[in-house]
Design a protein that fits this description.
Blueprint: H1 4-15, H2 18-52, E1 60-65, E2 83-84, H3 85-94, E3 99-115, E4 118-127, H4 131-134, E5 138-142, H5 147-151, E6 156-160, H6 161-168, E7 177-180, E8 183-192, E9 202-206, H7 207-213, E10 219-220, E11 222-227, H8 233-254, E12 265-269, H9 270-313, H10 315-323, H11 328-361, H12 377-404, H13 407-412
Parallel strand pairs: 4-9, 6-8
Antiparallel strand pairs: 1-11, 1-12, 2-10, 3-4, 3-7, 3-11, 5-8, 7-8
Helix pairs in contact: 2-9, 2-11, 9-11, 9-12, 11-12
Membrane topology: Multi-pass membrane protein
GO molecular function, one term: transmembrane transporter activity
Protein name: FtsX-like permease family protein
């Protein structure tokens, strides 16, 4: 039940030493403020990590070949290793049960796309239909490359939102013809990439059409695969490592490459990179929590100290209350109420200031590793419960000591 006289008593007690109360409140508020800001930036780091993998699937394996750097089995170094369609088909067949999406690639970097009087430079990538999911390309209009396009070597193209803006100036591009090195391609789709404008500097055509248009014969520039994910992230990483080792061995065996020639065959694994970066972000989050909790504890200690002083100053008053019949629980509740009030008021002030700061500066931060620092509602709610627990803890020991004071001893106190 709300007791106005009790609250008046609390305000009167705290106002007797305004400076001490204010300094204690600042200690608690600053602790919560720092805690919220650290959690917000921890969230921003995690968002930044996720954004790093937004452009491509996190379980992607990329295979490229270069020049050999070591002599092996009588063959000299500096041999150019060229992937073929056969290599893609063999890997897809042998490891198909462990792979989710598969695509070969034949690219022409910096090609000029021409639509009527408009032109722009884009990377033209010949791909298989699965590449839409490997690249996380979101189709906003039309469709992506399909198997029929590849089998018939159709001259069709999927452009990005960036290409649509630069070349078509707001016009619907579906069904329009664009020219690449004098060869006309029909636009069948428009895609958006969550990786942003940099990822949208590419356009896609069927891989068979790319090999014909760019005199690629049956050559491939690269191959891309995604690992079939399981509920156990570490298990998926281990599977990815084993696949990489097997694919690397298969290619080196076929093209007679030294097993220790790492430059000749380059296989990148985004899943393993993701594991390392996510682990790092988790460590950063743990450190932020540790520092934040430490600042809150400092505030709790400050509140506990002030409550000990208040109990000491009110020893005679507590003795009189007990002599008049006050129960120990009523004494404990009286002290706890003051402690919780100081903690809650100061803590909520720090909480609001921290959330306000994140809301204000969050949208202004332009960093690829920190994006949208914020604290969600659940975390804020947990913080409120922490405040209540902290206030109770800070006041309990002084309150318990006050409840144990014998009236005759208290009345003798000077």
């Amino acid at each position: 039940m709300f007791n106005i006289e009790r609250w008046q008593e609390i305000f009167q007690t705290l106002s007797k030493n305004k400076l001490r109360t204010v300094l204690t409140g600042i200690s608690v508020a600053s602790g919560i403020f720092i805690f919220i800001v650290l959690l917000g930036f921890s969230s921003g780091v995690q968002n930044g990590v996720k954004a790093q993998f937004a452009g491509d699937a996190t379980n992607k394996i990329s295979v490229r070949t270069r020049v050999t750097t070591k002599q092996y089995k009588g063959l000299n170094p500096n041999r150019r290793i060229q992937l073929k369609n056969e290599d893609f088909e063999n890997i897809s067949n042998i490891y198909g049960d462990y792979l989710e999406y598969k695509s070969g690639g034949y690219s022409n970097w910096g090609a000029q796309l021409v639509y009527k009087k408009q032109s722009g430079n884009f990377s033209v990538r010949g791909v298989h239909p699965d590449f839409q999911f490997i690249e996380n390309a979101i189709i906003s209009e039309g469709r992506f490359v399909n198997q029929g396009d590849i089998e018939d070597s159709r001259k069709v193209i999927v452009v990005s939102n960036k290409a649509k803006t630069e070349l078509f100036k707001g016009k619907n591009p579906i069904g329009e013809m664009v020219s690449i090195y004098g060869i006309n391609f029909k636009v069948v789709g428009v895609y958006a990439d969550p990786g942003g404008e940099r990822e949208e500097s590419q356009v896609y055509i069927p891989i068979s059409s790319a090999q014909i248009a760019f005199n690629g014969a049956d050559n491939l520039r690269d191959m891309s695969f995604t690992v079939a994910m399981s509920d156990d992230f570490d298990e998926a990483v281990e599977l990815s490592k084993n696949l990489i080792a097997s694919i690397d061995n298969d290619i080196k065996t076929k093209y007679t490459i030294a097993p220790n020639d790492r430059a000749a065959v380059r296989i990148d694994n985004t899943l393993e990179k993701a594991q390392k970066i996510y682990s790092l972000s988790n460590i950063i989050e743990a450190v932020f929590w540790f520092v934040g909790i430490g600042t809150i504890i400092a505030g709790i200690v400050s509140v506990g100290n002030i409550m000990i002083i208040i109990v000491k100053e009110r020893t005679k008053e507590i003795g009189i209350r007990k002599a008049l019949g006050a129960e120990p629980l009523s004494i404990i509740f009286m002290i706890l109420q003051e402690s919780i009030f100081v903690t809650m008021f100061s803590g909520l002030f720090g909480l609001i200031m921290g959330l306000g700061l994140l809301e204000f500066i969050g949208p202004t931060i332009e960093n690829e590793f920190i994006k949208y620092p914020q604290v969600d509602f659940n975390t804020a709610l947990i913080t409120v419960f922490i405040l209540v627990a902290a206030g109770t803890l800070a006041g309990f020991i002084p309150a318990y000591r006050a409840a144990k004071i014998k009236p005759i001893v208290a009345l003798r106190d000077e």
